Amino acid sequence: MPGSAVLVGGDPGIGKSTLLLQAAAALAARSGRACAYVSGEEAIDQVRLRAQRLGVTAAPVELASATSVRDLVDSLDHAQGPGVVVIDSIQTMYVDNLESAPGTVAQVRASTQELIRLAKARGFVLLLVGHVTKEGMIAGPKVLEHMVDAVLYFEGERGHQFRILRTTKNRFGPTDEIGVFEMTEQGLMEVANPSALFLAERRGEVSGASVFAGLEGTRPVLVEIQALVAPSSLGTPRRAVVGWDSGRLAMVLAVLEARCGLSFAGQDVYLNVAGGLRISEPAADLAVAAALVSALADRPVPAEAVVFGEIGLAGEVRAVSQAEQRLKEAAKLGFERAFLPPRRGRGKEAAGLPAGGALEVIEIGHLQDLVECLSSHSPDAPLRRHA
Ligand code: TYD
Ligand code: MG
Q1: What is the distance between the alpha carbons of residues 198 and 335, in angstroms, rounded to a whole number?
Q2: Does the residue 383 lie in any domain?
Q3: For the chain, N or C: smaller number of CB within 10 Å?
Q4: Do 169 and 306 fall into the same domain?
Q5: Pocket of ligand 1, candidates 18, 21, 161, 188: which has the most ligand atoms within 8 Å of its Cβ, to mutate?
Q6: Tens digits of residue pLDDT in 276-321
Q7: How far is Cα 124 from Cα 136, in angstroms, rounded to an integer?
Q8: What 3-state class would DSSP assign to 221?
Q9: What's this model's pTM, rounded to 2 decimal places?
Q10: Is residue 187 within 6 Å of ligand 1 at its C-beta?
């Protein structure tokens, strides 16, 4: 949107500069109108080298190295200016009528205000990079969220090559879209099929693993949940979680113990979302429970099954949104069976799915049903229903 300001936040080193340099080049190539990429962190030769390595030197992107907002305003405040201006990063910019150092809350706010004013006056799109700072939210992207029109966060786990771009605020469109990218030698590449990426290293039927049919924004994403349960040598056993909420794990463990009679006492429990994805959906509860039960019983969850559903404190399994979309994605990737919450008005028949994929649907009304399903030899054994 011309004249709008977009904040792109993320941890240092996650790939914000790479993403925005590539985006600036793509926008410039598509619109034919020049884009400006202003770095306050790297010398112009470094930026040029990066652009060469990313193979984006053909597009009309003006590269600049600057930190003074006054200088920027001087060079951008004319009618033939660029259509898009990237500021990398807002924490390096300063206005000279303030005493404080660049990167302080006052400077970050004042610089942003000044640049937004110019963007509105000249009608260019302002893309601001904001590092999420170590000291929490001080002078980080959070203090700017109310000033801009859209806020995107670029995230991913270090040591994993994929990244997710998420919208948390958007004055001009939806906030539930995500972009999935892979960091490669040639920069960021779009991942068209995230599920295939997250499941790429799965090793068939092993105990302690289940496949969660999740949603990221509007996109269905399948991801493997791994659990390890091992005797503890500690007085208080460990509960370690990567990629999920530890409070939520404690809740699922408590429900398994109180409502299903399982015991994790004296056992260390490790939970990991494979591939480095971070999941916040309660719909993952049932998949986590499946991985835990499978690890404890040392019995694999059927490899061709996906699992999803929210768990309540009584052990009841609650419906989650977009069940059909999750099932469709599972069928698309060749899964044959799904453990999911009871769906109103439907029996235990196969879900009607397009293109050859009929998924066997196993409705789980209570967590105990899942425990029985997983511990019985035949997954088709009759399910016990709880009132
Ligand atoms: P960068 O965009 O500099 O991160 P940020 O601006 O968020 O601090 O990129 C971070 C990492 O990405 C860097 O450590 C190296 C890696 N990288 C690649 O793997 N391939 C590439 O083509 C580029 C440019 C970077
Ligand atoms: Mg950077």
Answers
A1: 15
A2: no
A3: C
A4: no
A5: 18
A6: 888 989 999 999 999 999 999 999 999 899 999 999 999 999 999 9
A7: 31
A8: strand
A9: 0.79
A10: yes
